[in-house]
Specification:
Rossmann-like_a/b/a_fold, alpha/beta, single chain, Rossmann fold, about 280 residues, nucleotide-binding, NAD
């Protein structure tokens, strides 16, 4: 029996119920592709842009994007529809090999690499308020700068190509506010929205992603002092518990308290700017 709060939060995040069977999973994949294609049609644009980290979320969203533009080309005869996959490393990414595995799987129409290190360091050097911070706090703030610079780069590429930027947010990240406001939380369309983490993994596996990508330990990888810091360590709860919570299943009191508290504390990330 789920609590009223669980039901309220799941409804607010438009959480997709557990897949009843393979047919339900396939139907959801088709619905997501139709959504992506409709976003392009209604916008009058033909190009999609997404940063690929090597994690299961961007791997899944990237492959869905590529399949969608391929279908649009086939349906319309218009070769202008295309997908640009972007690598956005900060110097050398510690798990670059995983990112390349993802890129090889996605097989995007175009691949681009933008190293954000100079931009991040250049900006950080000009912000004097960073100088007095303790090392760990400065590292955290700089991590958010990385996320925002990455989104600036993606929007620049999209603008240059009259395209749309894809985001990778899904319900299990949304409930925890686990994204940088106006960083990776900024996008034109979010085709994974409403899915829990295990559903994203299931879709990745269905699409044929390598098992190493499907089961890669999720990490935002923004902190230089802790490269590859697992999401679950930052959350204080596991994705298994977060998924269960969102699907109205019983979770431990600790997990329930952490998830509800974090959801309430990060509400500002999920709404438009406050106005009078």
């Amino acid at each position: 029996m789920s609590s009223n709060r669980q039901q309220e939060i799941a409804k607010a995040l438009d959480v997709v119920p557990p897949f009843a069977d393979e047919a339900a999973l396939v139907a959801e994949v088709e619905r997501r592709k139709a959504f992506i294609k409709n976003c392009l049609r209604t916008s009058g644009l033909k190009v999609l842009v997404l940063g690929i980290s090597g994690g299961v979320d961007s791997t899944t969203a990237g492959r869905l994007a590529q399949l969608s533009v391929e279908e649009l080309r086939s349906e319309t005869g218009d070769a202008g529809y295309r997908f640009i996959a972007v690598r956005l490393p900060y110097n050398v990414q510690h798990d670059e090999q995983d990112a390349q595995v993802a890129m090889n799987f996605i097989r995007a129409d175009e691949e681009e690499t933008v190293n954000i290190a100079d931009s991040v360091l250049g900006l950080a050097e000009q912000v004097s308020h960073l100088n007095h911070l303790a090392d760990a706090r400065r590292d955290f703030v700089t991590g958010n700068i990385k996320a925002r610079i990455r989104m600036v780069a993606q929007f620049a590429i999209a603008n240059a190509n009259n395209g749309l930027v894809i985001g990778t947010d899904h319900a299990a990240e949304a409930v925890m506010g686990f994204f940088t406001k106006f960083g990776d939380g900024a996008c034109d369309l979010a085709p994974l929205s409403g899915l829990v983490k295990n559903q994203v993994r299931s879709i990745a596996r269905y699409l044929g992603a390598p098992e190493s990508a499907v089961h890669k330990v999720p990490t935002a990888d923004l902190e230089e002092l802790r490269p590859g810091k697992p999401d679950e360590e930052a959350h204080g709860v596991s994705y298994v518990e977060i998924d269960a919570f969102l699907h109205g299943q019983q979770v431990s009191q600790h997990a329930y308290d952490v998830i509800v508290r974090t959801y309430d504390n990060t509400q500002h990330k999920r709404i438009l700017p406050l106005v009078p």
